[in-house]
Structures are given as C-alpha cells and as structure tokens.
Amino acid sequence: MKETTLSGNKNRKSDLKHMWADIDKQWRRLRRALSYTRSHRTAVSAILVITLLMAAMNAAEPLVMKYIFDGLSGNVIVNTIIVGVILLLGLGLLREALSGFSNWLTWRTRLSIQYGLLDATVEKLHRLPHDIHRKEGVGAIMTRLDRGISGFINAISEISFNVLPALAYLVISVSLMFQLDWKLTLLVLAFAPLPGLIAAGVAPKQTKREQSLLDRWVKIYSRFNEVLSGIVTVRSFAMEDAEKKRFLRDVNSTNQLVVEGIRFDTFAGVAQNLIVVLARISAIGFGAYLIVKHQTTLGTLVAFQGYVGGLFGPVQGLTGIYRTMRTASVSLDQVFSILDTHDFLGDDPHAAELKDFKGEISFEDVHFSYEASANQIFNGIDIHVKPGEMIALVGPSGSGKTTLMALLMRFYDPVKGSVKMDGVDIRYLKQNWLRRQIGVVLQDALLFNESVRDNIAYGRPNASLSEIEQAAKAANAHDFIIKLEKGYDTVLGERGSRLSVGERQRIAIARAILKDAPVVVLDEATSALDAELEFLVQEALQRLIKGRTTFVIAHRLSTIVNADRILVLKNGRIIEQGTHPELIYSSGYYASLVEKQLKGLSVDHLNN
Does residue 553 fall inside a structural domain? Predict the structure, then answer.
C-alpha cells in the first residue's frame, strides 16, 4: 500500500513537472512570437488605450441607464430623460468613432506583423536544404506557412485586442456592481465560472481538432499541387475524374470533421448561453424581490441587466484564452518549424569573392552522402579542370553526376575533401558570388509565367533589350520569338507552357548566354529533343560554352564525343577518363555504353 502511494506521488510530481515544462515552453514561444510586434509598439499601445477607453464607456452605459430609470420617480423627469439620452448618445457616438479608428489601426497593424513574419519565413524558405523541399513538397510547405501565420495572427489579435479589453471591462464592471448592490453581484457571480468551466473542458478536444485539421489540409493541398504540376501525366492516363473524386472525397471527409467540430462547439455554446439566461432571469427575479422590499431601485436592476449581458462575454473570453493559446501554439509550431530549420549552408564569416576568376575547378578527395547513415555517393573523387576545358560526365543513373554539380554550386558540402575554384575552397567564397559564376541549362528548363524578355534576363534583370536579343540570336531563339503574338513581351504561361520543349530549351540557353558566367553546367540539355531540334540547340550550346569551363552531363553519348575529357562515374568513383577515342580504344565500360547505344541505330534494326 505504501509503495502504491509513493508511486502515485511520483507520477503526480512527474505530471506537474511536465505541465510546468509545457507552460514554460508555451510562454517562451509566445514571447518569441511577440517579438515580431516590437516594431509596432506605438500602434499596439494606441489600440490597447482605445479598447480600454471603450471598455470604460461600455461600463459607464448601465450607470446612465440607472440614472434615467431612478430619475423617473423624481420631480425633474424631463430633465433627467434629456440628460440621460444625451449622455447615451454621446457615449454611443464616441464609442463608434473609436471603434472605427481602432478597427482600421488593428487591421493595418495585423497586416504589418503578418508581413514581417512572411519576410522572415519566405527568406528562410529560399535557404532551406533541398532535401526538405523534396520531402515536404511545395504544397505542404505553403499550406503550413499560410495557415500557420494566419492562425498565429488571429491568436495574437484575440489576446491583444479582445482578451485584454475584456479583462479591463470585467474588473471595472464587477467593481461597479459591488458598489450598486453586493447581493445581486454575488448572485450573478455565482453563475460566472460555469461558462468558463465548460470552455476549459472542451478546449483540449478543440485544440486536438485544430491540429488534425491542419495536418489534413496540408496533405490534401500537397497532393493537389502535385496533380496540377503533373497535369500532362494525369491526362495521359485519363485520371482526371479519379483525381477530382479523390480530392473532393478528401475535402468532404475533412469538412465532415469541421461540421462535427461545429456541432460540438455549438452544443458547448448553447450550454454557456443557457447559463447566461439563467443568470439574467435570476437577477431579474431576485432584483424584483429586492425592489418590493425597498432594498434596491429599478435603476439598479436595469443597470445590472446591462452588466450581466456584458459580463459573461469577457468571462468566456478569458476562460477561452487557454484554447486561444493552444491554437496559437499549433500555428507557431508550423511557423517556427520553418524558422528553426538549421540554416543549411551559411556563408563563412570571412567569405570573400575571387578577383579575375579564371575558371579552374578541382574536386579533391571528395566523399559525400545525403544523410550520415546513408551509403556514400562519392568515395574519394579527384578531378582537376583547366580553365576553358570541356568535361563530360557519364555513368549509370544514380552514379552522382548531378550531385557532383550540386556540390560545385554548393547546394551541399562534401563530408570529406573539398571543391575549389582557382585553388580556393568554395566554403570560403560568398555563395551569391559563386553561383553568379555558373550558368546552368537543365533538361527540363524552368521558365516563369512572365514575358520572354523577363525570362531571358532572369539572371541579369537590368540587361537592355539589345543585349537580350543578341543572347536570343546566339541561342537560335530570336526567329521564333519575333513570331510570337507580342514578340519579346509575350507571356509564356506557367513553366513556359506556351512554348515547345525545344523552344523552352533555347530560351534557357539564351538566359545562360546573357548571364555570361565563366563556368557552364549542361545537365541532359538535349536528351528530350528530336534530331532536328537537337542540331539547333547543339549549335546554340557551342556558342554558349566557347571559352568557358564546361561540365556536360549526358546519357546520349553522341553529344559529348568532342569533349576534352570524359569522366565515367560508377559506384562512387571515377572508373575511367579520357577522350572519346581513347575510351573506345580501351574497350572498357564507356565503350560498352557506346556499343549499346549504337545497336539502336544499326541498319538491321532500322529495316525491321
């Protein structure tokens, strides 16, 4: 028995410890969140002063009603009514004027705080590790961000602009009620805790529902974003109706959760309102009894009815602060999960820029894996590239060709070894400067829903139209651009959907040419093109890479036969390197790849 008691005491102590730890965590999180309001302290203070004045006026109104009704039994009834009506009118006009100004200032402040949070989170989103974007998905991240910030702003507004004024009104009104009639006050206050107890009882379930709803909406819109991004694939499999049904089914099931929550909240609200009705009726009955006994006045009872109506709102608001805090906590978790993500690769405090960068690149004993426990992608890569040299990277899928270029652009750092530019470890170079030195053309060229001019000038927004046209001509793109509806001012649609694959690729090449970077990375830049388009793109690429250090990733080996050096990657190492003739002569892995591709072009195969 004694052991059971000791065990129970330990559990209670543990529960209390966890509770206080949770409260401390919530408080620290809230203080951090409130730091975003510091730059708006003047506006917030003004709003609080206005709302406190409004609370005082609301508390004064029942006193004016008492003055009027108590004056009806006197000798100067007309004067009493006139003065009372003027006071009520003045209070009403002033309250509405202050309310309108407060509403305008509140919204302006809310939007400013929201802008500050967006500024912090969007900047962080641009710097998140690439694997987080891959794991979470664009739709999930944006849904969490949007709903997280909105929930936080609503919670802060509720606490700052509703709960605090409600507290002020509660203190003022209860003080006045005791001065008017302590018996009636005690009767009304006996009912006051009951709505609060109901609110506190339902708060945990409401908070759990908020978290569940957020998770569901994140999943729904993450999938919806994937569907819209891959709409061509969806249509090619005739899955439009299936995806529509899936989306609407998920939305409907989530809406059912919302409806169940509304039903639950409605019952709780009805119970709270019934308590208010009982309090009002009890006050009327007991007040009427006191009037009959000449222990109070009609004006006092009328004033009490005014206070009873306004008293329970603040009480419920104050007891609902727990739910508000929990809702804010859920929202803050979403926002801070973004803000607290480890800044993946920040600049070294002494990071610099190279003067007169020549284009020499070296990978020295590079080891790399995406996760500490994962198998290494590279196990000691050594490459030295001279300025202006063209290097082709070949190997099976998953051999790390694109990852090697990601290391060059410092999207990741090697686990061991280093990547250098002109002999300087790129970890000691400013990342913005580093990436300005590299022009990239990918297999799936990303174009924005902007004009042709803006897309080509994406890396050099201040480029003149003449420079843009010269880049387009060098990329074999000018001729088809001027045939578009508005020429260089034609808006290309999402991801450049108004253009063909070949046209998008040439716009991407023009963008790289205009950037005029000393290093060029071509990642499968022609693999999706037919022979005719490939000739135009290859011609443009030759102009792009002329005099530049170039890395070419290609599965179509016919595009790299003229490379200065071909590196064959396999199992995390460079297993072969040399020119195309040298590698063919050695009859190694590269030669076997060429042979397999040439079989597809044999005369016998074509005749069949």
Answer: no
Residue 608, pLDDT above cutoff 50: no
Question: Using CA atoms, how far apart are residues 8 and 2, in angstroms rounded to an integer?
Answer: 10
Cβ neighbours of residue 220 under 8 Å, at least 6 residues apart?
247, 250, 251, 254
Tell me the residue range of the domain where 273 lies: 11-339
pLDDT tens by residue, 291-334: 888 888 888 888 888 777 667 766 666 655 655 666 666 666 66
Residue 144 forms part of a structural domain = yes
- Tokens representing 556 are 């179509």
Distance of CA 408 to the CA centre of its chain: 28
Element (H, E) at 492: none
pTM for this predicted structure: 0.58
The domain that holds 241 is classified in CATH as 1.20.1560.10
Amino acid residing at 269: G
Q: Where are the beta strands (DSSP E) in 484-587?
A: 519-523, 549-553, 565-570, 573-578
Cα–Cα dist 320/333, whole Å: 20
Q: How many CB atoms lie within 10 A of CB 330?
A: 21
- CA-nearest of 536, 548, 390 to 474 is 536
Helix (H) or strand (E) holding 563: none
Give dist(CA 313, CA 380) in Å, integer: 69
Residue 313 domain-assigned (yes or no): yes
The count of structural domains within the chain is 1
Phi, psi of 226 (to 5 degrees): -65, -40
What residue ranges in 378-497 does DSSP mark as E strands? 378-385, 390-394, 416-421, 424-425, 438-442
Q: What angle do CA 569, 574, 577 make, to 5 degrees?
A: 95
Candidate ranges 10-14, 73-77, 442-446; pick with highest mean pLDDT:
442-446
Query: Is there a domain that residue 243 lies in?
Result: yes
Question: Within a 10 A sphere around the Cβ of 122, how many other Cβ atoms?
Answer: 11
Rounded distance, CA 29 to CA 17, Å? 18
Tell me the two tokens of residue 513: 């040419």
Give the closest residue to 33 by CA, choosing from 321, 337, 322, 328: 328
d(CA 470, CA 397): 36
Map residue 425 onto helix, strand or coil.
strand
Q: Which residues pair with 361 in a beta bridge?
A: 385, 421
Going by their DSSP bridges, the two strands 416-421 and 424-425 should be labelled as antiparallel
Cα–Cα separations (whole angstroms), residue 593 to 259, 396, 527, 554, 558: 61, 9, 16, 12, 11
For residue 226, pLDDT over 80 is answered with no
**Which of 66, 64, 305, 53 has the alpha carbon at shortest distance from 172?**
53
Q: What is the DSSP annotation of 243-279?
A: HHHHHHHHHHHHHHHHHHHHHHHHHHHHHHHHHHHHH
